């Protein structure tokens, strides 16, 4: 919901933007009535194109970056090169171990975070482009729909600020989560001096690395839903905006009987 997506400063900014628009005519039609014929087509097209955006995002995040995140042998080599496996790890001081751990987490988690950011940013641009493409179709649904589209421009600007801040927070949390997960997983290895431990379990169902990759996809999907929900709400409301209000319909019915 909008209340959850916006914090207080952004809510105030949204209020200021709407106030700056001046007096806006009240939308007299119902927003919960039946879909118009033209509106049904716009709703269906919106759903079709949003589904394609979602599919592209999920497909892009199915292949993790770097490749070591999906290959236990490559993962083992990288950790060994950073002095986190075998005798080098066993003889390292706490400070050296922590420095090596952070370097390995950056080498592994950094590209994953950047890949996530790149794909989420592209998804957000795709939804914005779709919103622009559909705005003309929405305005053609009638004067009430055009009013909703005008109001939506201010809502979309405020939501954009809120989602951008949420993306930045998510990137920071991803780095922390990866570092913590790697630290705990290394501490649980059966032998501190084994140069070639079996790391495949990390990628099994329930393994920490597989769980982290699944969390990344879930986070991307939640950000997609934030973007898509606003567009769906606009199109759905605009497609119903032409429905007459209940009192208008009953008045017209009474006049016809008279």
What is the structural class? mainly alpha
**Shape annotation:** elongated
Which oligomerization state do the chains in this entry correspond to?
A: single chain
Q: How large is the share of residues in beta strands?
A: under 5%
Q: Based on DSSP secondary structure assignment, what is the total number of beta strands?
A: 0
End-to-end span in angstroms?
45 Å
- Average pLDDT for all residues: 81
What is the succession of H and E elements?
A: HHHHHHHHH
Biggest sheet overview: none
Percent of residues in helices: over 70%
Q: What is the rounded Rg?
A: 26 Å
| Count of helical stretches | 9
Query: Could you name the ranges where pLDDT drops below 50 across 5 or more consecutive residues?
Result: 1-12, 21-30, 244-258
Structure description:
The structure is a single chain. The longest helix is centred in the middle third of the chain and has 46 residues, at 94-139. Helices cover 75% and strands 0% of the residues. The chain has helices at 2-5, 8-20, 37-62, 72-81, 86-90, 94-139, 143-187, 208-240, 246-257. The chain has 258 residues and is an all-alpha fold. Mean pLDDT is 81; it is low at 1-12, 21-30 and 244-258.
Structure, briefly:
This protein has 258 residues and is an all-alpha fold. The protein has helices spanning 2-5, 8-20, 37-62, 72-81, 86-90, 94-139, 143-187, 208-240, 246-257.
Question: What keywords describe this structure?
Answer:
75% helix, 258 residues, disordered N terminus, elongated, disordered C terminus, mainly alpha, 9 helices
């Amino acid at each position: 919901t909008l209340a959850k997506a916006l914090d207080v400063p952004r809510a105030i900014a949204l209020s200021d933007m709407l106030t700056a628009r001046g007096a806006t005519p009240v939308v007299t039609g119902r927003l919960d009535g039946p879909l118009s014929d033209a509106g049904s087509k716009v709703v269906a097209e919106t759903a079709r194109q949003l589904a394609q955006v979602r599919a592209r995002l999920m497909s892009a995040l199915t292949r993790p970056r770097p490749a070591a995140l999906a290959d236990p042998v490559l993962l083992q080599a990288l950790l060994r090169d950073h002095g986190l496996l075998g005798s080098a790890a066993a003889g390292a001081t706490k400070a050296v171990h922590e420095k090596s751990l952070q370097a390995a987490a950056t080498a592994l988690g950094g590209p994953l975070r950047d890949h996530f950011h790149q794909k989420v940013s592209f998804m957000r641009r795709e939804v914005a482009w779709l919103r622009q493409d559909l705005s003309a179709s929405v305005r053609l649904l009638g004067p009430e729909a055009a009013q909703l589209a005008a109001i939506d421009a201010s809502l979309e600007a405020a939501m954009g600020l809120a989602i951008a801040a949420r993306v930045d927070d998510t990137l920071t949390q991803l780095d922390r989560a990866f570092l913590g997960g790697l630290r705990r997983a290394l501490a649980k290895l059966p032998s501190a001096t084994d140069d070639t431990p079996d790391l495949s379990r990390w990628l099994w169902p329930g393994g920490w690395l597989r769980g982290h990759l699944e969390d990344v996809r879930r986070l991307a999907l939640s950000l997609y839903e934030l973007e898509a929900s606003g567009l769906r709400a606009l199109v759905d409301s605009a497609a119903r905006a032409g429905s007459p209000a209940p009192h208008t319909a009953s008045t017209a019915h009474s006049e016809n009987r008279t």
